[in-house]
Amino acid sequence: MEIRPILSAMLRNKTGPILVALQVALSLGILANSLHIVNERREVIARPSGLSDEASTFYFTVRNLNSDGPEQQLATMKREADVLRAVPGVVAVANVTQMPLSRSGSNSSVALDQRQERESAIASQYVSGDSLVKAYGLKVVDGRDFLPNEYVEINENQQRELPKQLIISKPLADKLWPGQSAVGKTMFFGTGEGSQGTQIVGVVERLQSAHAEVGERGDFAVHIPARLYGNPGALYSIRTEPGQRDRVIKDAEEALRKSSATPIILETKTVEEDRKNRYRADMALSWMLITVSVLLLLITCSGIVGMASLWVTQRRKQIGVRRALGARKLDILRYFIMENFMITSAGVFGGVLFGVGLNHLLVSKLEMARLPIPYLIGGAIVFWALGILAAYGPAWRAASISPAMATRSA
User: Fold this and answer.
1) In sequence order, what are the beta bridge partners of 228?
2) Which of 100, 189, 291, 349 is the most exposed place for a label (fewest CB within 10 A)?
3) 107-111 and 196-204: which strand pairing?
4) How do 186-189 and 107-111 pair as beta strands?
5) From CA 382, how far away is CA 24, in angstroms rounded?
């Protein structure tokens, strides 16, 4: 089929083809970037926290309504931990200062040398007098877990040095000592003369921060082997046997209340709830962009169908004359499909340029990743297929027009 007659016909009536091509270009550019953003958000939402079984992990925030001294509070914390460990179905318990994804916790600047002017990284600080390797199910990839004699007890109301041993996450180890083993190395909390050095004894594969920041910082974490006491209340992380979490929550709460001579305030949260709350906005954005993408596809498809139908109506006499001169149904069908393919191709080319430009703007303003080429290629294929399918119905109706009917209506 010759392209020149089709191009000549479109040039005589430019408004319709230009509008359809612009619609395709805008839809392709927006669709490619929307799906790219959705994929990025999905990857962020699915980031592993380091916990071996999030579905079986929950935590209690316990506040005792008494005015006992620090030593009595320490004894209460140990008693409560023992009560929780005795509940059937409990695998491990840890008294810890914060939980991954909870959006509540503390960070600390860390450095390789106390003489540094600026810190090397900011790490989420997990302080626990129990093994988080066991409680969280963390995977040790280098070194070891803490030994029993390396855990210390620290009164928060008094100034005391931190323990001399430390476990850090692998992303933090790779940041501080790229290509080297971190075990045996010394890391400082803060910079300057008052900073304290600690020795790395172990590296865990992953331990996400409490705030789960996007980027490498969200995986920078340190585990300090200390049990903090002196303030009322404590946080206990509990990992249960698979499928036993909900039952254990009820039994553990009942056991804690029965074991306490004074009233206590209990707040229960699961890691699944924290993940859902942390990424609620990301999920909402993803679904909004998916909805917009579907609507754009429907609108573009409707535009192509409407324009093709209009062209069939306007060219009814021309089609009849061509049929009378011997044109087959296949010739008419190929003509309209090729015409729409050419218009769609112009829109696809413009959409690729628009998509690249839009992504460049998003990268510069929002620090997003660059748009991968497969998104544009996939989008182009989708719109080419969409253009052919949308034009097929009107084109088939045009091919079905008989010469007699066309000339009778002229």
Assistant:
1) 154
2) 291
3) unpaired
4) antiparallel
5) 11
